[in-house]
Amino acid sequence: MNFEFQNPTRLVFGAGNLSRLGDVVSEYGKKALLVTGGGSVKRSGVFDKAVESLKAAGVEFVECSGIEPNPRITSVARGAEIARTEGCDVIVALGGGSVMDASKVISAATLYDGDPWNMIHHGQENVYVPTVALPVVTVPTLAATGSESNCGAVITNEETTVKSFIQIPLLYPKVAVVDPELTVGVPKDQTAYGICDLITHITEAYLNGIDNTPVQDRFAEGVILTAMEWGPKALANPSDVEARVQVQWSALVALNGWLQVGTDAPYPVHMMEHTVSAYHDITHAAGLSIINPAWMRFAAKSNTAKYVQFAERVFGLKANGPDDLDCALAGIDRFEEFLKSIGCPTCFSELGIGDELFETYAKDTLKIVSDGKGNLPGRPFLSVEDMVEIFRSAL
Amino acid sequence: MNFEFQNPTRLVFGAGNLSRLGDVVSEYGKKALLVTGGGSVKRSGVFDKAVESLKAAGVEFVECSGIEPNPRITSVARGAEIARTEGCDVIVALGGGSVMDASKVISAATLYDGDPWNMIHHGQENVYVPTVALPVVTVPTLAATGSESNCGAVITNEETTVKSFIQIPLLYPKVAVVDPELTVGVPKDQTAYGICDLITHITEAYLNGIDNTPVQDRFAEGVILTAMEWGPKALANPSDVEARVQVQWSALVALNGWLQVGTDAPYPVHMMEHTVSAYHDITHAAGLSIINPAWMRFAAKSNTAKYVQFAERVFGLKANGPDDLDCALAGIDRFEEFLKSIGCPTCFSELGIGDELFETYAKDTLKIVSDGKGNLPGRPFLSVEDMVEIFRSAL
Known about the structure:
Order of helices and strands of chain A: EEHEHHEHEHEEEEHHHHHHHHH
Helix content of chain A: 40-55%
Oligomer: homodimer
CATH class of the largest domain in chain A: Mainly Alpha
Largest interface: A-B, 39 and 39 residues
CATH topology of the largest domain in chain A: Dehydroquinate synthase-like, alpha domain
Strand content of chain A: 5-15%
Radius of gyration of chain A: 20 Å
Largest sheet of chain A: 6 strands, parallel
Shape of chain A: globular
């Protein structure tokens, strides 16, 4: 383990904290760009409460609504234009992962004259690395992506059908105001996707990271166990605030860096999924739910000991030693059963996706991230053929 | 769970990183106050390497050596005086917990005209809360206190025999340069004390925190399990860098806030131990090793379910339900056996301490922290009689 780590985002966590939003935002600016997605924050009353809190604190705002579920670079450009024109000095992201991701990129795009797509890794020769950005305050309305307190964002270019990422310390939000009560009205399918999303964030680092990270392993297993215990409670009783609290906290720590630190892990399942959902407007977590178990079965053949540990510690199975592939696969089966039990899809056919573009997804994935020799980094590295085999096993 | 959290300390972690110290420090200042303890950093060659790195980066320095194992407020005042006189603009803490604690308080005392003891909680009417401090870079040479990346410090007033604390966000170090190779030469007894210290930091929050913190519980159990797995490896083979890495990372996360966040836990065992070690110049962790299991047996009677969870998850015991006190006590026995197995004392008599001052310790503890009704906060709250009973059971 040899790494640097710093997550400076201030967390304001707990039921009822939405009412503190205005006071928090007023520490960073006087006029906010209030970024939202579809109409759900308005239908639920969350938008009105946020506005009330901003007004009470004397914070002006202008709206940038309509951020898509897979946020587009054109929306980023639109938000930045509004922020510039209106003279906003702080960004408030009120929504799910897409709103928060878009807001982070808007925060840098507002202070950049060029095309914001230059900031997103998409195989270009020189990625533009911004050095200034407006302060961002995130208010997640879903427990899922962990975007509220990390420095990453995933953006889609609808013209070129490329979905890719930016991840730089500049984009850490100043504050995450996390009020689990906001998730009480989240429908069952989105709640389940959030649980799948957060667990997949964990399995990526856990299964693709370096060896000998015992603390990180225990953290990862602990958050997976917590999500598997409290997630179904939130699904069974959507207004169970305690369950919403535990799922939200699990989602936040799943991707704020505490579990990933020092693991030096690539995210092959995410890379593959991003390519798939660039072609099909599916929920990110639905794609993850399909690809992750299929990928695990492929990867367990070469990284068996880690999957045995997963099977033993998360599912209480008992292996005959660290090379017990049967036990490793049984753990993956149990994991897939869990995903099914909460209503997540585990085959492409469930989403009406056929095998026509499997090779295209694989090749496109390599355009975003590659080892330079035609392989996707991970444990193990994956060729186009490997990826197609994984996709096909999830057909 | 309703809390705010922010730990802004940048971590530079990994074997060999001492050579980067100068570059890191040069980001924050041009002239460092280099704070050290006894002669061990000089005998081990660590001091020379640190100096070499500072010089290579063009950072001047003046020394403040001789910080005591239980750092004294007079040493803080001395360090601040040197920093002021010499015009230091950054503090480098090269040593164990006492050096790092003293350095953090020096960083604020340098910019404060009053008596630095005003900053330390000792029952005074108005605690002085500093608002400015020099930047601090910590370089731990022990894996123990976690002081390298938190905002607390414990200081002793040798005149009044009071040992107490300050804990404010201002005192977060800017950077922790954590090089586990520096701990390879740490003697066995100090290595064992470090393991005890880090585990006690965890049990305090785990056993005194609020209910329903499942993620934090898993984190806590995970770090204890890791310390119990890798600690004995570091003791068996002191030059096993991998074991030193895992123990050091465990010690850091044990008290950087990730495990404690949201638990709202008081630290009764620490409060009692500080009073004992204010009277006897014993290693902090030796006092913890004696008091913690004794306190656990007392507390398990009223908080049984949590101790049952501890017994089951950390020691693999099987309980007959959450009120199985026998199982809870068996877990504590196993924990005490572990402490003995690594060479830590578990009775006062092992350190030549009798029962003469038990009531004094208890009463003095309440002078530092009390609920206003003569009880020490914790689960359960402890009266003077309770504390004396706990001390006596560890005689």
